[in-house]
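Field log, afternoon session.

UNIT: design team B
ACTIVITY: writing a sequence onto a fixed backbone
BACKBONE:
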């Protein structure tokens, strides 16, 4: 048929609404519908049918081959294509699911939901690897079936070779009506409790009752999400028991949006938090408690070494308990950790953001004044900018400071205001500062520094200077002795990379007599590592040493020297770091590279100027 004949069949299309045209086409024979659809210009430019209307007509065709062909002729959205695919035969649908790599997880689930329950059961058993690769859980499909279909599937559940977790997840997420109508006696006893577990409305999560037998939740890790930020001590203890049973359950913390830790991470983190709180003596003041807590965070957590790289995972560095368990975080995540622990001991604080950095405003807190009296008000603690100082036992210069002092700390070495703490509206009332002598007395009172208020880093700086003087004429020996000093002061230096970079950059390698044309302390990754985990490296270039390469070995806890050939063979720079220097690696550049340190840790610097001890 030609276009004129199509028009005659349809009638006065100019007077018809689109839906009327679609209804009329649907009533025609498959042969005519197919011919009409094959004229894409007629369908789209003359009849002006929308994509969803076109897919609606395609669905009515009997020939699957014609449907497949037509799907390629129109620019349909993926969901519109799926609506057609679910009308295919079982074998064709299974073929598409297993072979079409363009399908998303949701696409696959929609297609599988259109299968009969017997075919579904067989698919689940035969294609376990496929389900795992695509992160598809059988319960995600069964929970959306009609009540009778759910009951039919459960009737054959015991005969399916599925895991205990899969079977129990399916039973726990059935509709309330299906659960009521299923004979519990027909379900094996080890799965029966799942039928009595209530599911959250319009969600796949189950409602957790910490008062019931927690064993009922075994194997249901995927279905459990709890936010325990406001839990009582008793509730936390019950949740930790549940974490032993369901180590992969989801524990949520809120930081603008929701971030998840596992049950295992929650328990590990809570045990550490308890150990910190146990160090707080009953007679401690608020200031003493804050000093201990801020110091413990600095010794436990490091700034994420893969921040601003192609492998950086935001969720891992902002989830409260995951940060503690993994030992890495970024500014707002680290601030969240400290806020949570301070709240546990009755100290109120608020996370403040400048738009580029996050820290804490501590509210209505009492601090000791120089005259011995106590003053009360709001102050600022920046736990991220204190990480390096605490790790190397230096004076934290971002602990209990006023907004004015915080803004002074925003001025970098070149005199530029980085505005990391700028938030006039939220911080104008943060006027309380802990004077230096009061800070030293405070940290001495909780045993973190000498009785005279001297921070231990002073001896590290002095020892570094002695090494530099002793090996002034031998830069290679000087550098390697400085490396040993770093390892002695901080045995975990290879993993707390940002703090180590700061210490090397600001103190241990900051000597003019080393005569280095170039010194780069940064991160690379092993080419053999699929995860591209950060590795601390140091690169020197000088007339006396030539090009020298060192890697911080995490297992050995020491720096290992490499030849340039071996280093470049084994390691590579991150794409982000290459972009900062026009695609050149440090050893490929003839110009001295200025070390780039992320703003969120800029004031983590440790000064080693004459007579100064931080």
């Amino acid at each position: 048929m030609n276009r004129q004949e199509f028009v005659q069949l349809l009638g006065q299309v100019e007077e018809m609404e689109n839906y009327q045209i679609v209804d009329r086409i649907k009533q025609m024979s498959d042969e005519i519908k197919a011919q009409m659809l094959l004229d894409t210009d007629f369908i789209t430019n003359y009849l002006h049918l929308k994509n969803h209307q076109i897919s609606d007509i395609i669905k009515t065709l009997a020939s699957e081959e014609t449907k497949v062909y037509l799907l390629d002729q129109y620019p349909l959205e993926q969901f519109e294509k799926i609506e057609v695919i679910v009308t295919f035969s079982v074998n064709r649908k299974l073929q598409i699911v297993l072979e079409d790599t363009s399908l998303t997880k949701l696409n696959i689930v929609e297609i599988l939901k259109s299968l009969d329950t017997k075919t579904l059961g067989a698919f689940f058993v035969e294609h376990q690897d496929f389900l795992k690769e695509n992160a598809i859980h059988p319960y995600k499909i069964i929970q959306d079936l009609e009540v009778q279909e759910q009951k039919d599937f459960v009737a054959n559940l015991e005969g399916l070779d599925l895991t205990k977790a899969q079977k129990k997840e399916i039973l726990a997420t059935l509709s309330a009506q299906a659960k009521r109508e299923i004979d519990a006696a027909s379900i094996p006893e080890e799965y029966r409790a799942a039928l009595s577990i209530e599911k959250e409305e319009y969600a796949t999560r189950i409602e957790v009752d910490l008062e019931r037998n927690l064993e009922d939740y075994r194997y249901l890790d995927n279905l459990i999400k709890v936010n325990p930020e406001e839990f009582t001590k008793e509730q936390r203890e019950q949740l930790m028991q549940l974490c032993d049973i369901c180590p992969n359950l989801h524990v949520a913390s809120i930081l603008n949006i929701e971030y998840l830790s596992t049950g295992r991470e929650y328990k590990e983190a809570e045990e550490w938090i308890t150990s910190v709180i146990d160090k707080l003596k009953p007679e401690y003041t608020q200031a003493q408690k804050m000093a201990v807590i801020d110091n413990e965070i600095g010794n436990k957590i490091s700034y994420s070494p893969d921040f601003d790289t192609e492998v950086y995972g935001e969720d891992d560095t902002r989830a409260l308990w995951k940060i503690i368990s993994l030992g890495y975080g970024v500014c707002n995540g680290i601030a969240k950790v400290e806020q949570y622990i301070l709240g546990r001991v009755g100290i109120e604080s608020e996370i403040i953001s400048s738009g580029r950095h996050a820290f804490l405003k501590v509210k209505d807190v009492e601090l000791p004044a120089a005259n011995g009296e106590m003053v009360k008000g709001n102050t600022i603690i920046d736990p991220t900018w204190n990480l390096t100082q605490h790790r190397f036992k230096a004076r934290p210069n971002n602990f209990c400071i006023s907004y004015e002092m915080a803004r002074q700390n925003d001025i970098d070495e070149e005199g530029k205001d980085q505005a990391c703490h700028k938030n006039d509206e939220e911080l104008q009332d943060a006027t309380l500062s802990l004077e230096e002598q009061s800070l030293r007395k405070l940290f001495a009172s909780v045993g973190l520094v000498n009785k005279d208020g001297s921070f231990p880093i002073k001896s590290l700086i002095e020892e570094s200077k002695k090494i530099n003087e002793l090996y002034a004429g031998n830069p290679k020996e000087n550098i390697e002795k400085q490396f040993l000093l770093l390892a002695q002061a901080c045995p975990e230096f290879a993993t707390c990379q940002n703090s180590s970079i700061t210490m090397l950059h600001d103190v241990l390698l900051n000597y003019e007599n080393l005569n280095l044309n170039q010194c780069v302390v940064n991160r690379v990754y092993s080419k053999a590592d699929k995860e591209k985990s950060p590795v601390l490296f140091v690169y020197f270039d000088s007339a006396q040493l030539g090009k020298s390469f060192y890697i911080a070995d995490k297992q050995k806890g020491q720096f290992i020297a490499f030849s340039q050939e071996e280093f470049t063979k084994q390691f590579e720079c991150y794409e982000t770091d290459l972009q900062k220097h026009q695609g050149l690696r440090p050893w490929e550049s003839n110009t001295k590279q200025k070390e780039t340190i992320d703003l969120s840790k800029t004031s983590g610097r440790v000064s080693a100027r004459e007579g100064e001890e931080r």
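LOG NOTE: The CA atoms of residues 298 and 390 lie 5 Å apart.
NEXT ACTIVITY: expression trials, pending approval
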